[in-house]
Amino acid sequence: MKSTHSIRHLARTLLAFAVCIGSPAHSVAQLSATGESADPTRTTDIETKPEPQAPSASFEPYLDGVMNALFEDYDLVGAVFSLVYDGQPAFSKGYGYADLESRTPADPAVHLFRPGSVSKLITWTAVMQLFEQGKVRLDAPVSEYIDQFPTPGSYGAVTLEHALTHTPGLEDGGIGYLFAESADDLVPLAESLATHAPTQQWPPGTAAAYSNWTTALAGLVVANVSGMTFEEYVARNIFEPLGMRHSSFDEPLPAPLDANMATGYSDVGKGLEVLGYEYIRNFGPAGALAATADDMARFIVAHVNGGELNGARILKPETARLMHSRLFGPVEGLPGMAHGFMELWHNGHRFVGHGGDTIAFHSDLAIDPDRGFGFYVSFNAPDGGQARDVVTRAVLNYFYPEAAPAESAPPPEGTAERVANIVGAYRANRRSHTKLEAVAGLAADIPIVPGNDGRIVLALPMFGGEYEEVEPYVFREVNGRSMLAFETDASGAVVRALPSMPIIAFDKLAFHETAGNHQLVIALALLAALFVVINAVRNRSAIRASGGTGARATWTLLGLSIVNLAFVLGFVALFATAVQDPVSAMFNFPPTGTGALLILPIAGALLTLATLGFGALLWARGTWNLAKRLRYTYVTVVNVLFVLVLNYWNMIGWNYY
What is the DSSP letter of 235? Predict the structure, then answer.
């Protein structure tokens, strides 16, 4: 396997992990093409929109052509697809294999695939059932329904509405605990949520940041209020009435279902390998579902038919309409959040849906509830993340033909000033803020730079591009449909960027927060440490002979330099294994030996304090000549900055679960 493929897969794996058992709504790559805002010229009356093109004999060969091309271009194993049209199942088909070794053809009626975060739609349907029964209030603090542990609330109480829209203000994470390596590692839902409770970083309801923990918490609300386990509740109240006999949140899967479970595959640069069953029950309501494509079609039918399938009702019509309606959106004209569903605009039409990624499986579900239309697709190999995006675009383009992109227009007055206010470094707010896994953000920030003719350039792979302003602080992709808006504070300074993904924002970074400046500090600290060590070796006899404050200061600085070098080299060596095998890192993080390694930054911080003290003495007593004191002071200042950088990235102390 080519090294470039390994690097590409590593990036996809980390992205999938970051979004969790789920691409939030849709993957980043997909959203760049299909997550566009509503066409500003469109009518707001949905009834005036033309009907989607009806299925015809040409759709199957059309989809076959798309799939055949994907199986040629990507490392895929199998896929399943189901389509709902006019409120009824209209088409389903399998492609490739459910298991590569046995060459078992994928069957949408038989083989269970893992929908990942599409599972959340089941969880939110369960919540809305309890809501319509008057057993929960969406605007009530979640703490009213949770008695096992205190819920985060430093900036304000989290409600079910916040959970439905991913606006609880919580940090996110999951490396080492979101997935369980075996059934022996599974723990009760309440215990897992209590152990891995995130901190609240900003007031709820102000900015969206995708949260698996909060969705799993909503599943615990379902369990507590109903008096059943979450798995029992959805089986009785959703799967059974809809006839979804091949669907389950149970882990391990019941034997009859497990016999038809499609094999999931991973790839860390050595070719496709069997991954084994992915246990997500520790956060089960956020992504533990296993289901056939035909069962997912039944779920779609119920939603597009106002909560009913063949006489069985899981939601009242008004509840279904409410669930599909917009609940949160920071900027008018950009996709927002419905009640658990995420908005997607494609070719001038509004859809709601959700995407999902596990390590092996990559899925998507989208519906047009006003037209009785929807589809579900799932792949069982890593490249399925990209293939899924292509299928989504192709299916929507077939039924809702593409409109021409809006033509460029002269920028509004004041664009140059606003661009100057916008450019800078940004970082996704959906991340760990307080744990060691946050260090992944040290790799790079998201740069927004000025382009030509008053445009801006989002310099980021997969969903970057050139954007032009269409109204103050709202930009549209040039020759595309993705949107990018910017939020300002009371002083008019830009504080965050809002892409066409309603579940994430990019915070603008201050000068002292950027990864580039932190990388520079680390580089300077390493160079300074090398200089000190080399100088001490060359002048060891003179240092020993000098004695006094100067000698003690030098030996202290030498000790600090050795500690810093040892920590950086040890960290790189230890975490190189996670880069080489990111799949294993998802189960086993932090790497063995991390606890011992993190003693070094604490020792370094103490030695840095000592060098500050010695520096003050050197200047007060006039020890050494001016040039030597300045060199000592420079190295000390660099080491102080190094300690601050390590602390910023949670590397001082044992900040992991």
Answer: I
Question: Other CB atoms closer than 10 Å to residue 438's CB: what's the count?
Answer: 18
Dihedral angle at the C-alpha atoms of 431, 434, 439, 440, nearest 10 degrees? -10
Which pLDDT value is given to residue 406? 63
Give the pLDDT confidence of 600-618 residue by residue, as tens digits: 999 999 999 999 999 999 9
Chain centre to alpha carbon of residue 411: 33
Torsions phi, psi for 90 (to 5 deg): -120, -25
pLDDT of residue 11 exceeding 60: no
Continuous H helices in 183-275: 189-195, 212-226, 230-234, 240-242, 255-258
Q: Which residues pair with 424 in a beta bridge?
A: 448
DSSP letter assigned to residue 259? T
Whole-structure pTM value: 0.90
Neighbour count for residue 356 (Cβ, 10 Å): 33
Q: Which domains does the chain show, CATH number per domain?
A: 3-119+229-399 (3.40.710.10), 415-512 (2.40.128), 515-648 (no CATH)
Compute, in degrees rounded to 10, the torsion defined by CA atoms 212, 195, 275, 97.
-30
Task: Report the candidate in 220, 378, 187, 368 with the shortest Cα–Cα distance to residue 294.
Answer: 378
Nearest to 223 by CA among 164, 312, 135: 135
- Cα dihedral sign, 577-580-585-588: negative
